[in-house]
From TrEMBL:
It comes from Metabacillus rhizolycopersici. The keyword DNA-binding does not apply. The keyword Nucleus does not apply. It comes from the Bacteria. This is Multidrug resistance efflux transporter family protein. The chain crosses the membrane at residues 31-50, 70-90, 96-116, 136-152, 158-177, 198-220, 232-253, 265-284, 290-308. InterPro entries: EmrE. Keywords: Membrane, Transmembrane, Transmembrane helix.
Length: 327
């Protein structure tokens, strides 16, 4: 339950991303700056945290062992996650982006067979390939139905182009974020804490953000003061607080793919927080009774997903795949 609670708290702070990104787009800011500035602002804070914990040297030692892995999965987990989110914010309202982002509930579950997890047997622990948590997957569909109901009235008012440009990038992000996170957990194998891992992934994604900022500089000039300030708050609320809370939650259950999928399912609450944020800060209309019904399904589906995932145990076959080491 602690991991679930941390996941819900992280979803609250993640919601700031969707609301503030939409606010920046409405004020004329480039999505390229919205994306890259967040990670530039995150970097010094993460350095201070890791240095204060006297854990910078161990991080660099681990990064030197697999530099290309850190570059690849840092770019996938952070770059191909956040850049598409910001791009989508340029074409659709915060509620639509946040709602579409909940596809990560399914994405996380579908990625399970790509990884191995430790299972205790009479002959000692072994590494076996994960299986898709079918019970949790069924509960995920309840969450998605709720999201569909909640957003139907609003989505019907958008053009096909706006719908596609705000949905397809988020679909890409929904797979990139859990994939990068899980790959780095498998690479670190408990050697690094959540602060070190987030800093390492941020450093690994820097070439991507530098490239985006150069493109932004030549296409739209320097960012405005308002966009810079809002990007700073996105970095603090979403980039630091939410990311660290979420990564800590996944750390607690990293050896159980079913529970890991349950933690990722808590991010469905983001759509509620984002909608409330839009109502308060961007004067969005109050949800209709149909939308409230959808919200109830989202919350109910998340609770059921968490419950069934507790009992969704991995069955070990006598012909299970042998242990696998990640390089």
């Amino acid at each position: 339950m602690k991991a679930i609670a941390l996941g819900i708290c992280s979803s609250l702070f993640f919601a700031f991303t969707f609301v503030l990104n939409r606010s920046m787009e409405l004020s004329g800011g480039s999505w390229l700056w919205s994306a890259s500035l967040r990670f530039f602002f995150m970097l010094p804070f993460l350095f201070l945290i890791v240095i204060g914990r006297n854990k910078l040297a161990p991080l660099f030692i681990e990064m030197k062992k697999h530099p290309l892995q850190w570059l690849l999965w840092g770019t996938v987990g952070f770059g191909l996650f956040y850049a598409p989110i910001c791009f989508a914010g340029a074409y659709g309202p915060a509620w639509l982006v946040a709602a579409t982002w909940q596809i990560t509930i399914l994405s996380g579950s579908l990625l399970v067979p790509l990884f191995y997890e430790e299972v205790k047997t009479a002959n000692g622990p072994i590494q076996v390939r994960g299986k898709i948590p079918m019970k949790g997957l069924c509960m995920s569909f309840i969450i998605l139905i709720g999201i569909g109901i909640m957003q139907y009235e609003h989505a019907s008012q958008l053009s096909i182009k706006s719908m596609l440009l705000s949905i397809i990038p988020v679909l890409i992000a929904s797979f990139a974020y859990p994939l990068g996170n899980r790959k780095m957990m498998a690479l670190c194998t408990g050697k690094l804490d959540v602060f070190q891992r987030v800093l390492g992934m941020t450093i690994g994604s820097l070439p991507f953000w530098i490239a985006l900022s150069i493109i932004a500089l030549f296409t739209s000039g320097l960012p405005s003061k308002t966009q810079t300030i809002q990007s700073f708050w996105v970095a603090i609320c979403s980039g630091l607080i939410a990311t660290l809370l979420f990564f800590q939650a996944t750390n607690l259950v990293q050896n159980n793919m079913a529970k890991l999928a349950a933690v990722e399912a808590t991010q469905s609450i983001e759509v509620l927080f984002a909608l409330i944020g839009e109502i308060i800060f961007l004067s969005a209309p109050i949800p209709t009774p149909i939308s409230l019904l959808g919200m109830a399904l989202v919350i109910g589906g998340m609770v059921l997903h968490s419950y069934v995932s507790r009992t969704d145990r991995l069955e070990v076959s006598p012909h299970a795949d042998p242990p696998k080491q990640y390089s």
